[in-house]
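Hi U.,

Before I forget, here's the chain from the pilot set. I'm dumping it here mostly so it's searchable later in email.
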Amino acid sequence: MSTLPLRHVAIIMDGNRRWADQRKLPRLSGHKEGVKSLKRLVQHAGAIGLEYLTVYAFSSENWQRSKEEVRYLFELFSNVLRDEFDELAENRVRLRFLGDMSTIPTRLRKSFERSMDDSKNNTGLNLQVAINYGSRLEITQAAKRLAVDVAEGRLNANEITEDLLATYLFTGDIPDPEMMIRTGGEMRLSNYLLWQAAYSELYITPILWPDFTPENFDKAVEEYAHRNRRFGAD
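Structure:
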């Protein structure tokens, strides 16, 4: 692919459990296959020069799933980070985790923090992984922090702008995504990047996440290139 028409793509990686159900496999195996799909895409995104890729790995609502599944997902996150970090580092990937880390198991949270610190100077793909993330929670926490800064005199309420509020979000200095891809065919945002994706182009595909390939990604980017972004002006 030639010069990319965008800098940042966000993805709702949906369909792991349905993928397993269709094959009469344990649902947990769908998550394992989903990791393989993500690895392929991260390699591809870095190779074609994408600057930012943000993926939805575990929502704040996912705690409602069975304890077995939640425990498995956290073990999977830990194992993937352990097994894949060196390769990510070799490819100069900068890794960041977005979300409320206060309820993440301590050992896993420390692994996240260590990997972010160890990769902070990498100059390749910026990979953001949203874990225990919910956009309403994110905006609420940002509003609380703003309120504290105003109350304690560090900020005047009249100084609050959209750009300033954005710096209080989990995404901080990360640019908004130009496109959001959702696999699995569902027509909803699922409380993901509601502020940041205000003007993102949506690309919904019925392909389940474990089956989503770099070629499918390129097709989405190609379609994006032919769209006319109007930012609500027309």
